[in-house]
Design a protein that fits this description.
The protein has helices at residues 64-72, 86-95, 103-129, 131-137, 142-147; strands at 2-4, 11-13, 24-27, 34-37, 158-170, 173-184, 190-191, 194-200, 206-212, 218-219, 223-232, 240-246, 251-252. By secondary structure, it is an alpha+beta fold. The radius of gyration is 48 Å and the shape is rod-shaped.
């Protein structure tokens, strides 16, 4: 017997023997809907087979009954088809049924696509409205905006201010202390870049360099972030110092 769920429209094949004699409660394996299913109506009894034709009286034809049987010969054996398996027949009928997608499943697919589209639109709108902040935090994103025709204001550069140096003795070592501040003139906070100390001789030629990461996560908008570091036993050939910001694009002094 083929059952159809009234909630999701899914159809199932249930053997008739599982529902007789009084029916039973069944459950949809897809959506969990339950209901009481009545047994299938009993099949009508086949009409009685026609009895064998009455034999003609012995005197109806010359020779009587024996002569008639001899003339007709032995009756051919009736061809008997094997009994039909009801479960196999029901499976064949179900396999030929058209596949019907439940309305609930179609609605679920539409809702999923709508949520995905809305999420993409929200991300794109945020990237457009906050483009100046995105470029301030990630300068490498500026060319991407320009390629798709969206104008962005280039972030104002960070700068190094108030650099001071001092040599001190710590035990048997000479230590060079370097301090200053990273200034941010833009209206958005900027990530703290690494600083590269370039030591130069009297001819402004590089002697050596040293890179370090200042403490802190961001340089505040319209503000500054102090930094300091120490270098043990600096070269005696170093006469001056340049501090370069490693912003990822190019160094800024």
């Amino acid at each position: 017997m083929i059952l159809s769920c009234s909630a999701c429209g899914t159809r199932f094949l249930v053997p008739d023997q599982a529902l007789v004699p009084d029916g039973r409660r069944v459950k949809c394996g897809k959506c969990g809907q339950t209901w009481f299913q009545q047994p299938p109506p009993p099949e009508a009894a086949p009409p009685p087979a026609a009895g064998p034709a009455a034999a003609p009286p012995a005197d109806a034809a010359p020779g009587g009954f024996a002569a008639e049987m001899g003339r007709l010969g032995q009756p051919a054996a009736a061809a008997v088809e094997p009994p039909l398996d009801p479960v196999a027949a029901a499976r064949e009928r179900v396999s030929n049924l058209p596949i019907v997608k439940a309305d609930a499943e179609r609605r679920s697919d539409r809702v999923g696509w709508m949520i995905l589209a809305a999420s993409v639109l929200i991300v794109l709108a945020g990237a457009y409205l906050a483009r100046d902040r995105v470029v301030a935090l990630l300068p490498a994103a500026a060319p991407l905006y320009q390629k798709i025709g969206i104008h962005v204001s280039p972030p104002e550069k960070l700068s190094v201010q108030g650099v001071v140096t001092k040599q001190v003795r710590e035990g048997d070592k000479t230590v060079l202390e370097v301090a200053g501040a990273i200034a941010n003139a833009s209206t958005w906070p900027r990530p703290v870049p690494k600083l590269r100390l370039v030591f130069l001789d009297d001819k402004r030629e590089q002697v050596f360099e040293f890179t370090f990461q200042p403490t802190g996560a961001e340089v505040p908008a319209k503000g500054s972030l102090p930094f300091s570091t120490k270098l043990a036993n600096p070269s005696a050939e170093a006469k001056s110092l340049d501090v370069v910001l490693e912003t990822g694009d190019e160094g800024e002094k």
